[in-house]
Amino acid sequence: MTTTEAVPETRSFEADVAKLLHLMVHSVYSDKDVFLRELISNAADACEKLRYEGLSDPALLGEDGQPRITVTLDPDNRQLAIEDNGIGMSEAEMGEALGTIARSGTKAFMDRIAGAKDAEGSQLIGQFGVGFYSAFMVADKVDVVSRRAGADTAAIWSSDGLGTYTIQPTNLAEAPARGTRVLLHLKEDAASYTESFTIERTIKAQSGHVPVPIFLQEKPDAEPKQIADGAALWTRPKAEITTEEYKDFYRSVAGQYDEPALTLHYRAEGLHEYNVLAFVPETKPFDLFDPDRAGRMKLYVRRVFITDEAQILPRYLRFVRGLVDSADLPLNVSREMIQESPVLAAIQKGVSNRILSELDKLSASDSERYLKIWDNFGAVLKEGLYEDYARREQLLGLARFKTTASGDAWRSLKDYAAGLKENQTAIYYATGSDLGRLASSPQLEGFRARGIEVLLLADQVDSFWVTGMDYEGKPFKSVTQGLADLSLIPLPESETPAADASDAVNGFIAFVKTTLGDAVSDVRVSDRLTESAVCLVAPEHAMDRQLEKLLAGAGRLDATAKPVLEINPRHALIAKLSEAGEGDQALREDAAHLLFDEARIADGELPVDPRAFSARLTRVLGRGL
Q1: Is it true that domain 234-369 has CATH number 3.40.640.10?
Q2: What are phi and psi of 156, to 5 degrees?
Q3: Which residue, 131, 350, 354, 437, has most beta carbons within 10 Å?
Q4: What is the pLDDT of residues 327-366, one digit of tens each?
Q5: Do 584 and 619 contact (CB within 8 A), yes or no?
Q6: Which of 3.30.930.10, 1.20.120.790, 3.30.870.10, 3.20.20.300 is the CATH number of 503-540+548-624?
Q7: Phi/psi zone of residue 195: left (φ > 0), alpha (ψ -120 to 50 degrees), beta?
């Protein structure tokens, strides 16, 4: 079927893609060169995929077995074409790949880019990996002609980026013999991208590292010249690679446009040989908390791309970007079998240990740089404390915490251990969802009075990993669980030890326990309160209250433990209520329920019965007035 005979099928972009394209076309960015890096990166991936499929089906390569990318300039028509002889796409694959955004994060990208300053725009494009769509920053129209390797049909995809696109079959004479050609009809202000100097400089700066040779054709009928040799960056000696080359490679492999906070490049030799080039990003990737928690390390075998789904690193290192190129894995094995290979298992162990080791070295040599990494990825690294028992000690050494003694600074467990008080037998912590609320928790008062440092743990994973954990023989203990055991730790000399509760206070506490009944498991005198009247804690052998809330919220608990209400016998309100006589029975009953609800509110919870709480509060206020 010829182009004139074909009937183009007009389709609409998915809603998110349409919004994204609108932002692309109608926003101004300080660095539009990013589009060229993205298109060349896509072309290189297509060549690498063909190399892999060609291992099992050599006929796909035909007589043209050498991968290449050709960039063609057409100044007269203000056009730029990027063509590869890679795997290519069928008509159905083009509709799927170019009409949708497969990876999550589009909404997050649009939310951020809509409010970004001009200088941030190009960084966000790379960071959110929108790839192909960046072409519309410089083009009024984009045509994509593709022929899948081994197929006897070709198709053309066209769009002006304004909400719709067309797909139709095209004459084979107008398509590459194999692969894809992306033709950009450039905007008037993007005419400089038809200048050979501009294009050659940009490609060498941004894409000179890709493992596919790149050729530049200065006019449609000119002889192509090679401007990048396709030598894989990770196979070159470190001494020959500049910081800029590492940065450009990182941006390509990571799909981000920031700079790497840490670069790790080495060759492992011995039982297994492999090259590693890995980066820790400077900013959080958009998919950091993807529910699948999938890694983003690519696996190569002797420079042939195999898969980016091999899970080379544990899930708590999923923020690391880069690749591993093995000399030992077989090329003709399936991607599923590779995952079960003992060679890959050894690589996984070696690379994971090396990355943690490099982070440890950085924490000792440049704490400021390390703390920036921890600030971004600490919550993810702590998942390893829960999941990776073998590396728990190493991860505890890397962990940093906000504490009651640190202010805004981060503290290590080594720092904490150096400040242990006399007779202190545990490492105390408080968990929650907000650092400010944690720091003002009433349960901390007795610890603060004795100068005992408490870890403030505000990430969800914190409630899980601390269970059963210890450091240098000292267990982690929640300040909201069981007895505080503070009586063994002396107060500062300036503080006067509190007197024991009077008989009247003990009588009132017994009354509160009777009044509340099954709402609590116990009501007792508190040695952890110094300023507040009441607080709630978990029973001694029950789980921490924050963990209980998380599990209950996720539907993973059939029943929750009744809390313990602790009462400060030295508080003025408790003293007054204890002195109230039998004639104030109604007041005492209202007070008992109000104290319980007050403790719940301080814990971030609602009163047990908001309507009854309001009625009791009205009665007590009325009596007071």
Answers
A1: no
A2: -125, 135
A3: 131
A4: 888 765 555 667 678 999 999 999 999 999 999 999 999 9
A5: no
A6: 1.20.120.790
A7: beta
